[in-house]
């Protein structure tokens, strides 16, 4: 419920940009890391109100068998047969409760090309990063070593490489050597952003990225959370969620000027531009007291600066179009 207002508005954003693009008759909604399927459920619900069942299809990039099953239970029409395949690019397919067909893939490269909306909500911050630190004007990669000292707390420790590593030679280019003492680089992020950029450049469409992020001004953001509390990354490995804020300046360097980029802007700015306050007031009119309390609490969490309002960012890219600015990046 806490993300309800935001997810609804992301669905409205896709509809708005589809209509402003001439309502193409064959459109794909591609989500990276669909979580529990909640966002796509809201997007499909929004599109179903326009009776678009015959013009759109849904493509989910998910590597986790457990999560894909949760997503299927959320989205699949229980009256329709769900298919599995080991010979196709997709590994799972079903008709959704909202009408359009939904397919699952292990890799973005397996998703069919064409005019598409690429949506990634809290996806890139979970991808692995290489960390480099500058010492005496020389960059060193941060590595993990065994700590066998008697008073070792975790029996593991962070150390800096003595010399250049394969990752530093491949990833640490001069344009990344800014004033920061620490740089985080995700090569997997680079591959995915490059893939989406080429697809949009060739076939049209939009990408909307929503994540904890910044524009190059930070240093070390890598951290771990366990039960929603900060947790040492080397304590009981595998029991905590690892995350690193998304460096959107890295996105821009990869994209270059091949497509138009917008943002990053704060979540509060994006949601206010999309009319979240008006939407909240409409929902409160017919809601029970308990639902009203939940909606107001979620609204504050999404928009207030000390919560997610400023920390969470929205970033978009699209084909070059003269003087065109998508919704959210300017008021509707």
UniProtKB/TrEMBL annotation:
- Keywords from the named record: Methyltransferase, Mitochondrion, Transferase
Its annotated compartments are:
Mitochondrion
**Which reaction is this enzyme known to catalyze?**
L-arginyl-[protein] + 2 S-adenosyl-L-methionine = N(omega),N(omega)'-dimethyl-L-arginyl-[protein] + 2 S-adenosyl-L-homocysteine + 2 H(+)
GO cellular component terms, semicolon-separated: mitochondrion
Gene Ontology biological process terms, A to Z: methylation; mitochondrial respiratory chain complex I assembly
Offer one Pfam family short name for this entry: Methyltransf_28
Its main localization is mitochondrion
Question: Which InterPro entries has this protein been placed in?
Answer: NDUFAF7 (IPR003788), NDUFAF7_sf (IPR038375), SAM-dependent_MTases_sf (IPR029063)
Source organism's superkingdom?
Eukaryota
Q: GO terms for molecular function, please?
A: protein-arginine omega-N symmetric methyltransferase activity
UniProt keyword Mitochondrion, yes or no: yes
Q: What is its EC number?
A: 2.1.1.320
Family named by the database record? Belongs to the NDUFAF7 family.
Q: Which PANTHER family match?
A: PROTEIN ARGININE METHYLTRANSFERASE NDUFAF7, MITOCHONDRIAL
Q: What does this protein do?
A: Arginine methyltransferase involved in the assembly or stability of mitochondrial NADH:ubiquinone oxidoreductase complex (complex I).
Protein's recorded name? Protein arginine methyltransferase NDUFAF7
């Amino acid at each position: 419920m806490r993300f309800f207002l935001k997810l609804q508005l992301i669905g409205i954003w896709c509809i708005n940009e589809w209509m402003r693009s001439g309502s193409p008759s064959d459109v794909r909604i591609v989500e990276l890391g669909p979580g529990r399927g909640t966002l796509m459920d809201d997007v499909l619900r929004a599109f179903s109100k326009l009776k678009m069942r015959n013009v759109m299809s849904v493509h989910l990039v998910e590597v986790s068998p457990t999560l894909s099953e949760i997503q299927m239970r959320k989205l699949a029409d229980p009256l329709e047969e769900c298919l599995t395949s080991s010979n196709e690019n997709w590994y799972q397919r079903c008709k959704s409760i909202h009408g359009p067909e939904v397919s699952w893939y292990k890799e973005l490269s397996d998703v069919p090309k064409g005019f598409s909306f690429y949506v990634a909500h809290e996806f890139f911050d979970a991808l692995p990063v290489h960390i480099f630190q500058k010492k005496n004007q020389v960059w060193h990669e941060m590595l993990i070593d065994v700590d066998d000292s008697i008073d070792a707390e975790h029996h593991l420790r962070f150390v800096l490489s003595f010399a250049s590593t394969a990752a530093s030679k491949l990833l640490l280019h001069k344009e990344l050597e800014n004033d920061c003492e620490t740089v985080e680089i995700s090569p997997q992020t680079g591959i995915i952003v490059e893939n989406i950029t080429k697809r949009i450049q060739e076939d049209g469409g939009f990408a909307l990225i929503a994540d904890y992020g910044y524009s190059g001004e930070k240093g070390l953001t890598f951290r771990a959370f366990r039960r929603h509390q900060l947790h040492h990354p080397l304590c009981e490995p595998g029991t905590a969620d690892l995350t690193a804020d998304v460096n959107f300046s890295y996105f821009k360097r990869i994209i270059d000027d091949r497509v138009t980029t917008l943002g990053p802007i704060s979540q509060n700015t994006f949601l206010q531009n999309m009319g979240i306050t008006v939407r909240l007031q409409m929902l409160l009119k017919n809601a029970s007291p308990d639902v009203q309390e939940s909606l107001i609490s979620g609204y504050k969490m999404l928009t207030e600066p000390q919560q997610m309002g400023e920390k969470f960012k929205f970033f978009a890219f699209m084909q070059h179009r003269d003087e065109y600015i998508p919704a959210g990046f300017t008021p509707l």
